[in-house]
Specification:
This protein has helices at about 15-25, 75-80, 85-90, 95-110, 180-190, 210-220, 250-260, 260-270, 280-295, 405, 415-430; strands at about 5-10, 30-35, 115, 120-130, 135-140, 145-155, 175, 200-205, 225-230, 305, 310-315, 320-325, 335-340, 340-345, 395-400. By secondary structure, it is α/β, with parallel strands linked by helices. Strands 1, 2, 3, 4, 5, 6 and 15 form a 7-stranded mixed β-sheet that branches. About 40% of the residues are buried.
Length: about 425
């Protein structure tokens, strides 16, 4: 007989890990279980680039804004691993991404009893149990079936693959979420190795922090290659780090945004965009500019940033990737060729637009059980519960997928992770007496 959990969490990245911690520390006596497709605990493993740091204050970790005394804080992780003083002496504003990834793995290790790793969810349905209650039935790639009175989806957002790349199926074109594994695959294919197997040319698409980091990494990794970054805006832009703008990552601002009309939300999004999207931190921009300047000084420029460029056509042939590119201000056409292309093109939020998702992928089979607003957005309550059409529909929460309803603080960062976990944990306690 299949066991019916109180709560089943799909995904065990930072969002649902923070929820597991909150449920333990807040003393909520619920039967909770998680399913995770990765083989073990990890965070952004495909982007563990040498020297790259996180983009949030380290105290905005899995727990500290909710419970500064928690044993699961980043500070306690450093202390228990004997690196607190050494870390405080590192001349960096933010921690290395490698260090934060190890922190996430360390924290997740305390909850291994609650997680099935290496399990891909293949279906979600609403069924009726022996007592006549509606529950969720979740099927997996292992052939197992799980049931729960409530579901929390914390799988992260799907990569955004824009036209014309969305019709390409080739190891030579890949999203940043596959960066390091994709390079390993290309090396095995003889496309991205060392020495004579080094690529001749590489193209990065995008103007984000990740795009700049990838450009720098590729320039270091393949010093003989031409590395070109194509940016749709005029050029690369610096992130808005004003302390006034940063208040968009306060919980009060989340409440304020939630109450705004859709039209006003769109205006707020436009203003807040440069705090997180299509922009990069000043340190990596300065490093990239210095590199290009020095290459020009030496008469050997290999790294290029080309703004106002839009890829219109793509062909993957035996000799590499051929790109047809439009210069947006002049309308001129350009031909670019690369051994491979890295897409630093961001992620899909929830919504009705072409670059958005109507619902998370795992909700597609049950989407008709839930409400949408007049603009086509999934109706999500202030406590992150998706609003059902029927009163007997079991509770479903979205953990880390609600930027379109809750604003920039829900944009996949750690900024409000612990506070959101508290809200969901408290709502689960109320919904599951």
């Amino acid at each position: 007989m299949t066991r019916c959990h109180d709560v089943l969490g799909i995904g065990f990245g930072p969002a649902n890990l923070a929820l597991a911690i909150a449920l333990e520390e807040e003393g909520h006596d619920l039967d909770v279980h998680f399913l995770e497709s990765r083989p073990g605990p990890s965070w952004q493993s495909a982007m563990m680039l040498d020297g790259s740091d996180i983009q949030n204050h380290p105290v905005r970790d899995l727990v500290s804004l909710r419970n500064p005394r928690s044993r699961y804080s980043f500070i306690n992780y450093l202390f228990e691993n004997g690196r607190l003083l050494e870390h405080l002496n590192v001349p960096m504003e933010f921690p290395l991404r490698k260090d934060y990834a190890r922190y996430v793995t360390w924290a997740a290790g305390h909850f291994s009893r609650l997680v099935d790793y290496g399990v891909q969810v293949t279906g979600v349905a609403v069924d009726v149990d022996a007592e006549g209650r509606r529950i969720y039935t979740v099927t997996t790639s292992t052939g197992d079936t799980h049931q729960a009175r409530a579901l929390v989806i914390g799988t992260g957002r799907a990569p955004f693959i824009p036209e014309p790349f969305d019709e390409v199926d080739s190891p030579r074109v890949f999203h940043l979420t596959r960066y390091l594994p994709a390079l390993q695959q290309l090396e095995e294919l003889g496309v991205a190795g060392e020495g004579e197997k080094s690529p001749r040319a590489v193209t990065v698409i995008g103007g984000s922090q990740s795009a700049v980091e990838l450009t720098l990494d590729l320039a270091r990794r393949f010093p003989r290659a031409k590395v070109t970054t194509l940016v749709r805006s005029l050029t690369l832009r610096q992130k808005d780090t004003s302390p006034f703008s940063e208040e968009g990552y306060f919980p009060d601002f989340t409440d304020y945004y939630y109450r705004a009309s859709r039209e006003r939300k769109d205006d707020i999004d436009t203003f807040m965009r440069l705090t997180n999207y299509s922009s990069a931190d000043g340190d990596v921009l300065r490093e990239l500019y210095r590199l290009i300047y020095e290459q020009r000084l030496d008469g050997d420029q290999k790294v290029f940033v080309s703004g106002s460029r839009q890829v219109r056509e793509i062909k993957v042939l035996e000799d590499g990737v051929h790109l047809g590119v439009e210069e947006l201000n002049t309308g001129e056409s350009e031909e670019h060729q690369a051994d491979f292309v890295v897409l630093a093109t961001g992620f899909r939020d929830l919504g009705p637009a072409a670059h958005q998702e109507r619902v998370p992928a795992l909700m597609r089979g049950i989407a008709d059980d839930f409400s949408f607003d007049s603009h086509g957005y999934l109706a999500v309550g202030p406590d992150y519960e998706v609003q059902p059409l029927g009163a007997d529909t079991p509770a479903l929460f979205l953990n880390g997928l609600c930027e379109s309803s809750h604003g920039i603080g829900d944009a996949g960062s750690f900024s409000l992770l612990s506070l959101r976990a508290k809200v969901i944990a408290e709502s689960l306690r109320k919904r599951l007496p």
